[in-house]
């Protein structure tokens, strides 16, 4: 006989991003059992109560695009003040020096940063597989499980070197067959398509200018066979448009359709430079877009057409993008950046703090094809981020939810993943952050200075 799951009442929060839940939520096992209106009591006895009267409670944030390995090359002098293509060209030879130990620590740092920012699902797009790093996906799964964060790891790839008309050097590419074999291996080992899954795998050829058409097509076939998602960079810069025209004689969205990717299984990183017809086409197909506001501003890539894409039918989520173009892995900061950039684009009344939070929760969940996370509601996974407003920056704030975004929250006080506390009093459980920083910094200086 199975023991009954413990019931926890997160009681009467200062504010909560959920309908009819001013009295808090009851968590039973890994899921939300009840949302309580103001003044209500749980329908059944609870085993424990947490007083949330000082906390703003939101759904756990969901990151849909990152490159964890780049935490080792933040603010690197070779790449500062460059747009995307020169930035990549400057960093490819630097990244070629990454070791298995460095990659493991880079992943641990990135996932820990995300967790501390209120993120409960860490998406990562890893596309570098130099010699010795062939099991990179395995490492990232291990690190996510150790930290207790939900993970969506995409098996990225680059197969078209600069000698073949692509962008990366040959030392960072693999041949198509090697990539496809390993893609199938990690899907069989780790991909869990069931509700409540802690680990899911997607397939993510890096970009049109780094892989062959064959790899794109074969990846789409594999995704169908294993019921997984597809992900790639697309529409990030005008230079990419020119590159696609020169290499394939097509604009990026035309290329996407030719290789069998124009459908709801796909979500794209950045999605900035789409014309009106392409926005409509992507929306009709249900292709998701991961908006990366911080990276787009750092690299001056442009502004994602978030409102038009959503109106056309595309899910819009948020991503921090790599820590060499964002220089951080903080998703609640990304929410604020999304609000500010999109207000600048569309006007003060057109985009609200609730829109930006929705992109980082429900929108991101839709990009990943998940209906079990991203909202606080009965039956959903108990993935929650709790923030206090006790820093000086929040003094004088009147609307707690708005203050979280407008006043610039940076760190959660508590984070729950699948019903279990993973951050308490602003610290990740079971992890020496000081030691992690020392070890990670030492390797960054040793390998990449």
Question: Shape, please?
Answer: globular
Overall mean pLDDT stands at 96
Give the name of the CATH superfamily of the largest domain.
Metal-dependent hydrolases
Low-confidence runs (pLDDT<50, min 5 residues)?
Answer: none
Report the biggest beta sheet as strand number plus sense, adding barrel if it closes: 6 strands, mixed
Total count of helical runs of at least 4 residues: 14
CATH topology of the largest domain, by name, is TIM Barrel
Supply Rg.
21 Å
What fraction of the residues are assigned to beta strands by DSSP?
Answer: 15-25%
Number of strands: 18
EC number: 3.5.4.32
Pfam families: Amidohydro_1
InterPro entries: Amidohydro-rel (IPR006680), Metal-dep_hydrolase_composite (IPR011059), Metal_Hydrolase (IPR032466), MTA/SAH_deaminase (IPR050287)
Family: Belongs to the metallo-dependent hydrolases superfamily. ATZ/TRZ family.
What does this molecule look like?
The chain is α/β, with parallel strands linked by helices. The chain folds into two domains: 7-58 and 378-428, Urease, subunit C, domain 1; 61-367, TIM Barrel, CATH 3.20.20. The chain contains 14 helices and 18 strands. The strands form four sheets. Strands 2-6-15-16-17-18 form a six-stranded mixed beta sheet, with helices on one face. It is globular, with a radius of gyration of 21 Å. The mean pLDDT is 96.
């Amino acid at each position: 006989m199975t023991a009954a799951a413990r019931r926890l009442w997160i009681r009467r929060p200062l504010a909560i991003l959920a309908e009819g839940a001013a009295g808090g939520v009851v968590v039973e096992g890994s899921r939300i059992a009840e949302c309580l209106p103001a003044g209500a009591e749980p329908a059944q006895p609870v085993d424990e109560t947490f007083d949330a009267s000082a906390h703003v409670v939101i759904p756990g944030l969901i990151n849909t695009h990152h490159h964890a390995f780049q935490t080792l090359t933040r603010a690197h002098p070779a790449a500062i003040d460059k747009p995307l293509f020169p930035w990549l060209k400057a960093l490819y030879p630097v990244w070629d020096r990454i070791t298995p130990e460095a990659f493991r620590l880079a992943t641990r740092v990135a996932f820990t940063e995300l967790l501390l920012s209120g993120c409960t699902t860490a998406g990562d797009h890893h596309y570098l597989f130099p010699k010795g790093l062939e099991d990179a996906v395995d490492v990232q799964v291990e690190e996510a499980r150790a930290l207790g964060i939900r993970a969506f790891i995409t098996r990225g790839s680059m197969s078209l070197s600069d000698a073949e008309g692509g962008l990366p050097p040959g030392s960072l590419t693999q041949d198509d067959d090697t990539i496809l074999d390993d893609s199938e291996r990690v899907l069989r080992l780790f991909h869990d398509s069931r509700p409540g899954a802690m680990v899911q795998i997607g397939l993510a050829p890096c970009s049109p200018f780094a892989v062959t058409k064959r790899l794109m097509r074969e990846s789409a076939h594999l995704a169908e066979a294993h019921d997984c998602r597809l992900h790639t960079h697309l529409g990030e810069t005008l230079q990419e448009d020119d590159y696609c025209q020169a290499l394939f004689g097509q604009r990026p969205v035309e290329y996407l359709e030719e290789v069998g990717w124009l459908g709801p299984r796909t979500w794209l990183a950045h999605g900035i430079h789409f014309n009106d017809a392409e926005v409509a086409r992507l929306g009709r197909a249900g292709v998701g877009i991961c908006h990366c506001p911080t990276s787009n501003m750092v690299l001056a890539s442009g502004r994602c057409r978030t409102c038009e894409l959503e109106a056309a039918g595309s899910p819009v989520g948020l991503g921090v993008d790599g820590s060499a173009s964002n220089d951080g892995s903080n998703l609640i900061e990304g929410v604020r950046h999304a609000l500010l950039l999109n207000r600048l684009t569309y006007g003060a009344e057109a985009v609200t703090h609730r829109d930006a939070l929705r992109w980082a929760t429900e929108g991101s969940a839709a990009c990943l094809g998940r209906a079990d996370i991203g909202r606080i509601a009965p039956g959903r996974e108990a993935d929650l981020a709790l923030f206090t407003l006790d820093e000086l920056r929040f003094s004088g704030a009147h609307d707690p939810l708005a203050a979280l975004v407008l006043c610039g929250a940076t760190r959660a006080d508590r984070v729950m993943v699948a019903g279990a506390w993973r951050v308490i009093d602003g610290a990740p459980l079971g992890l020496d952050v000081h030691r992690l920083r020392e070890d990670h910094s030492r390797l960054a200086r040793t390998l990449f200075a």
